[in-house]
Amino acid sequence: MKLNVFIVIKEIFVLCIALLFAACGSGNKLHEHDNELAKLSLDAFAEVKGQVHREKMDEVGLYEVVNGAETLISKTRVGKNGWYGFAIEPARPGFYTVGGEKTSERIRVYLEAGDRAEVNILEDTLVITNRNTPENLLLARWESIFEPVRRRVDHKDFIFFTYKELFPYYMDFLPKVEEFKREIRSENPFFEELLRQTVEYDVEYFALRILSAVKVDRAVMRGCRPEPGDYPDYYSTLVSKDKLNDSSLLRQPYGVDYLMSYTNLALQKLNRKQTIVDQLEWVPCDLLKAEIVLRHAGWAKTYEKYDEIVTYFSKYLTTESHHRRMDELSAKLYVGNKGAKAADFTYPDRNGKLVSLSDFKGKVVVVDVWATWCGPCRKEIPYLIKLEEEMRGKDVVFIGVSVDEKKDHQAWLDVLDKEGLEGIQLFASGWSQIVKDYKIKGIPRFMVFDRQGKVVTIDSPRPSDPRLKALLDAELEK
């Protein structure tokens, strides 16, 4: 019988520790300590497992809820006996989702270190079983109460259940929500607060989903969506400019989708084109504003449009996560054609001062991407120094960007001194954003930018090739 991988690993690990402990004697304090460390190591993990009873489902995914969206962290194949399983080390207590590739095929579970969760995947639903933590059992109660609403909004079986039926059904459901909220009790204060927020957000999110749900009017057999005049009074209570004043919404797998639907509802009465600025006016929390900005940046079709958005709203993009996602979008969109705006970069010089490519507008800029371990890079250094001397006094700036790893920082400094490399020398700490933006597969790579900060070429001749000097002379004459 094929067992889940994480169960096998755990059992082997525990068995090995147990055998080692027995062989060395129960009185050996050192090995007692090792055994305790092994137990602590296992307790740092959380497990999710279950059985799949769904045809044509060969894989199950586990997703972490991060920044109001679901991020796939692992996939596993379903065993011959129908079981699947995961073992993860939760970064923080919170929601994960488990199930299929589509959002509608997944369900939330609450995990923190040491938790064991079980979710069975049936043909048409997902079930949090009774072999779960108290937190997940309470979450399961809410899921069972709310599932009929979710199905009527999303499921294909209710394609003809239009807003004309949905609105009355939803209004009749709201008292059940209040009843459940009064019954929420948990010995885990963090989870109790999270579940109360979850109930509120679930109810509101699906109320918003009703407004754009794909439905067909059976009488005329065509699409049917409500107009603002059809909305019940309930919708006038949903939006307020002081409502979303913290980032708790981002704990939900649909957090950013909620934000976009919420602001769209708030702006429906404006008789003009709706903008990002209009949306942001309805969201007091800066972390939520950042998610709206990043969603629009992700919709950009060109690097120029992306750059326009993130530059204008840069004051909201402050966290490491914001910058990582900006880098991913930048690398995806940037092409670097001649005449295109340069993809900016910022790295520290040998004294730790941050220097950016954009600092040198008004100058022709030559960028040398290199590393101390790169033989061809080192061979170009004498030619580069000679070229810099020939261009001295002209409007040309030379920037060296080392992609040496952080551990080799001192080696980089030593090479700068040994080779006599002066001027602007930057340290990128590895194969970082400049490499991703400019699609650099090998080094050395030389690039040239004009006085307006636009691309002349992102793959220029090397200093040992006279064509580079000719290219710079031509740019200086423009």
UniProtKB/TrEMBL annotation:
Biological process, per Gene Ontology: cytochrome complex assembly
Alphabetical list of PROSITE patterns matching this protein: PROKAR_LIPOPROTEIN (PS51257), THIOREDOXIN_1 (PS00194), THIOREDOXIN_2 (PS51352)
Thioredoxin domain boundaries: 336-477
Location(s) in or outside the cell: Cell envelope
Alphabetic keyword roster: Cytochrome c-type biogenesis, Disulfide bond, Isomerase, Redox-active center
Predominant location: other
GO molecular function: antioxidant activity; isomerase activity; oxidoreductase activity
Any one annotated GO CC term: cell envelope
Name of the featured protein: Thiol-disulfide isomerase/thioredoxin
Organism this protein belongs to: Butyricimonas faecihominis
